[in-house]
Amino acid sequence: MNNQTKYFHHVEHRKFQNSSKTTLWLSLIITLFFTIVEFVGGIVSNSLALLSDSFHMLSDVLALALSMVAIYFASKAPTKNYTYGFMRLEIIVAFLNGLALIVISLGIMYEGIMRIIHPKPVESGLMVVIAVIGLVVNVVLTLILVASLKKEDNINIQSALWHFFGDLLNSIGVIVAVVIIYFTGWNIIDPIISIIISLIIFNGGFKIIKNAWKVLMERVPDGFNTDIIMADMKSVEGVIDIHEFHLWSITTNHRSLSAHVVLSDEYIKSPYETINKVSKLLKDKYGLRHVTLQIENIHLNHLDEAYFKQYEEV
C-alpha cells in the first residue's frame, strides 16, 4: 500500500483486542476448574441445582473458547475474498452462544419438572459449600469482565458477562435452596430453583441472539435515526436529495454507511468539496468513519439515459 492510498484509507477491517483476549483466557481457566468441581459436587450431593449450573458453566467454557477463536480471526487482515476481514465471526459466535444458552435452559427446565414429579433426597451440606465457592468465583469473574468491557467493547465479552451473571444468581439461588431445605426439609425447592435459573439463562440467551441477529441482518444500529441522518446530510449546501441510503454494522462498534448524494447543478462542477462536507458531518456528529458516497446529478442522469437509449434503438 503506497502513501497516497494510505492517506485515503478510512477504516482498517480488523480488531486487536489484547484486553479482551487476556480476560477470556483468565475466565476460561477459572470457569473450567469450577465446572469440574460443581459437576462432581452435584453428583455426590444429588443436587439438580448444582448439576444444572455445572452444565451452564460447561456452556460458559465452550462460549469462552469460541470467543477466543473469534478474537483470533478478528485480528487477521482482510483478503481479496474476505474484503471486510473476519470480524463478523464475533457475531456468529455470539449468536451460537446465545442459542446454546437457550437449549441448555430448556434442558434444565425439563429436568426440573421431572424432579418435581419424581423427587429425590438432596445432600444440603455439600451443596452450600460448593455454592459459596461458586458465588465467590462468579463475583470475581463478573468484576473481571466488567473491567474489560470498560476498556474494549466486545459482544463476546458481553455474552460472557450474561453467562456469569446468570451463574452469580444461580449460586445465590442454591444457597437459598440449601437454607430452605435445612430448615423445612422441602427437597422440592431444589428443582424449583433450577427452573427459575433456567428462565434467567433463557432470557440471557434470547438477548444475546437478539443483538447478534440485528448485526447479521444488517439492521440500522441502535441509537441511529435514518430520517434524521438523511435530513442532516440534505442540510449541507448543494445537496438536494439522498437515496439508496444504507447504514449497518459489521461487528460491535464497526459501522458503515453508503448513500447516493444528488447535487444541484451549480455544485456538480466541483462536487468533492460538498461531498467532503457531508463526510465530515457524518464523522463528527455520528462517529461514522467508514462512509461511501456516490455523487449524482439529475441532469447528468438524464444525459446518461439518453446516451444509452440511442444504442438501444440501434
Describe the secondary-structure layout.
Layout: H1 3-8, H2 18-45, H3 48-74, H4 88-117, H5 124-151, H6 155-184, H7 189-216, H8 226-234, E1 239-251, E2 254-263, H9 265-268, H10 271-286, E3 290-296, H11 298-313
Parallel strand pairs: 2-3
Antiparallel strand pairs: 1-2
Helix pairs in contact: 2-3, 2-5, 3-4, 3-6, 3-7, 4-6, 4-7, 5-6, 6-7
Q: What is the strand content? A: 5-15%
Using the coordinates above, name the CATH class of the largest domain. Mainly Alpha
CATH level-four homologous superfamily name of the largest domain: Cation efflux protein transmembrane domain
- Here the CATH topology of the largest domain equals Alpha-lytic protease prodomain-like
Q: pLDDT under 50 segments (min length 5)?
A: 1-10, 303-308, 310-314
**Per the principal axes of the C-alpha atoms, what is the gross shape?**
elongated
How helix-rich are the residues, as a percent range? over 70%
Order of helices and strands: HHHHHHHHEEHHEH
> What's the tally of helices?
11
Q: Which secondary-structure class do the elements indicate? A: mainly alpha
Family: Belongs to the cation diffusion facilitator (CDF) transporter (TC 2.A.4) family. SLC30A subfamily.
Protein name: Cation transporter
Pfam families: Cation_efflux, ZT_dimer
Membrane topology: Multi-pass membrane protein
